[in-house]
Amino acid sequence: MSNFKIIAKDGTARAGVLKTLHGEIETPVYMPVGTQGTVKALTPDDLKELGAQIILGNTYHLNLRPTSELIKKMGGLHKFMGWDGPILTDSGGFQAFSLGAMIEHGIKKVSQVSSVRSQEKNSVIPHLMRNPGEDKSGSQIKSGMTNVKVRKSGKVYDTKNKTIHRHVTVELKPEASKNGLVKITEEGVQFKSHLDGAVHMLTPERSIEIQLNLGVDIVLVLDELISPLHSKSYVAQSLERTHRWELRSLKYYKTRVKKNRENRGMIFGILQGVDDKTIRQLEARWIAKQDFDGVSIGGSFGTSPLWSAPDLMDPRLRGDDVEWASTKSIEQTMGWITPLLPESWPRHALGIGEVVDFFLCIEKGVDMFDCVSPTRRARNGSLYISPKTGGKIKNKFVLNIGNAEFSLDPKPIDPECECYTCKNFTRSYLRHLFMAKELLFFRLASIHNLYFMVNLVKSIRQSIIDKKFKKLKKMWLG
Ligand SMILES: [Zn+2]
């Protein structure tokens, strides 16, 4: 019997209820990301209060530190972190792999929803600000598993977060590429820990074992992250290997669950791919035939010079236009694949979750989102605002609290918002905290940004039930 029930539809947008071991989730849903067993700066009570129903944990990070075995001994991730709601974990492959592709292509960080433009051979990096302050020209930065030398920095479009970030042009130290720090074999992926350099092997079976150790509600299979700069022949090979890994993950999961009568949770397959209709649809048809409980949609979207549809990859596109092309590519991809997926499966857009994405993907029948953007933005002083407060596509629905114009502003961040921060604090005070780098700022800003996103998706859900989705979409996107 399916754990997922659709209770209303408006066009192809769905409102549903997903039953998990730790309670029911109303979908569509935005899941805050708790990378290291914590949603940065917030307590589980904060998360409940702002309306979070489910959070996402990162297998890669939790298994390197403190290790999934330790968490298992401490009673599982729920108990360990004091969160009794549902948890979904990724397979760990994303973090382990992204560095392999980066080394190969000279890219510092490939995001799950990534695309890059090569302005100079082996040089352009969607830099995710892992180490802000360190990427000054000529400096050495430690990036996960490799050291790179920064040659120059500038701005680049970060397709995952759909924002313009600084980019750095790097020179890989010879040993980084020579040593093959990430090795992909049929068996799995071998990588070096970014913490201590120890070599680890992540196989489909080990990934599931780690996630079962954590005792989460929804586990994901191991897949290979495809770089947008991989060739067509590599992509074909990689997708076939991912199929085998997904089936091994599923087999191991079923054996373990049956044998130990543990974790009666769910396992989601992953739909990989690139910006290519034929490939995406073949992948959708393949995954639809497997015995999963749901699907997470990953891969690369958007403006890769190798893959993008010509109309989305106009060389004249720059800045905001590139961003929009990438967003439209996500919408286009969802439109290609969702009609081919089982109606009874919850569909999760991996690592996607900006205001525009919610509307475009939900309209195509996507149910679940996760994205680090709201908490990362919060820490950078970028706070969400609704259309009534001036939020629009062009300003990415954010204001930058560091701007001098807010120094004497007595209004809350968003007068339309009912979060704890907006009910109690002025923009003036928040700007002061931000400028003074006070820790309280991170907490208050994260509360607002997460409340905003969680509740935006809840309002979209209600609009589906009320058959007013298009009206709400128009109100937000124009
Ligand atoms: Zn607020």
Write structural notes for this entry.
- This protein is of the alpha/beta class.
- It folds into 3 domains: 4-94 and 185-371, Queuine tRNA-ribosyltransferase-like (TIM Barrel, Alpha-Beta Barrel); 97-178, no CATH class; 375-477, no CATH class.
- It is built from 16 helices and 20 strands.
- The protein has helices at 44-49, 59-64, 68-73, 77-81, 93-105, 174-178, 204-214, 232-260, 277-288, 320-337, 355-363, 373-379, 420-424, 427-435, 439-465, 469-477, and strands at 4-10, 13-20, 23-27, 29-31, 33-34, 55-57, 87-89, 140-143, 146-158, 163-172, 183-184, 189-192, 199-202, 218-220, 266-271, 294-297, 347-349, 368-370, 382-384, 398-400.
- The strands form 6 sheets. The protein has a 6-stranded parallel β-sheet.
- Helix 11 (355-363) links the parallel strand 17 and strand 18 (368-370).
- Helix 7 (204-214) packs across helix 8, helix 10 packs parallel to helix 11 and helix 15 packs antiparallel against helix 16 (469-477).
- Residues 106-179 have low confidence and may be disordered.
